[in-house]
Amino acid sequence: MLIYMLATAMTVAMLIATVLGLHQEADRVRAKSNTKRFEGFGVRKTYRHF
Predict the structure, then answer these.
(1) Which residue intervals of the chain are DSSP H helices?
(2) Superkingdom of the source (predicted)?
(3) How many CA atoms lie within 13 Å of 30's alpha carbon, on the beta-carbon side?
(4) CA–CA separation, 37 vs 5, rounded Å?
(5) CB-side exposure of 19: number of CA atoms within 13 Å?
(6) Hey, what long-range contacts does 11-16 have (CB within 8 A, 24 or more apart)?
(7) Measuring CA to CA, how many Å separate 41 from each of 29, 46, 49?
(8) Could you say which DSSP state residue 37 is in?
(9) What is the pLDDT of residue 38?
(10) What are phi and psi of 24, to 5 degrees?
(11) Could you tell me which of 28, 46, 47, 30 has the C-alpha nearest to residue 38?
């Protein structure tokens, strides 16, 4: 019974660590995107047929 309690505690701890890591990564990406705005995938050329 003790092994199941330890396994459950470790699973919960890893889930919490994963959620916190994802939150920190999202903050880092959000801060990085504020400094340089996304301007598309390069120069967009418009071709006009006359």
Answers:
(1) 2-35
(2) Bacteria
(3) 6
(4) 48
(5) 6
(6) none
(7) 18, 14, 24
(8) -
(9) 58
(10) -65, -40
(11) 30
Rounded to an integer, what distance in angstroms lies between the CA atom of residue 12 and that of residue 6?
10
Distance CA 11, CA 19 (A): 12
Structure-token match 């994963």, residue found: 18
Query: Does the predicted TM-score (pTM) go above 0.70?
Result: no
Q: Which two three-digit tokens encode residue 14?
A: 């890893």
Supply the DSSP symbol for 49: -
CA–CA dist 22, 15 (Å, integer): 11
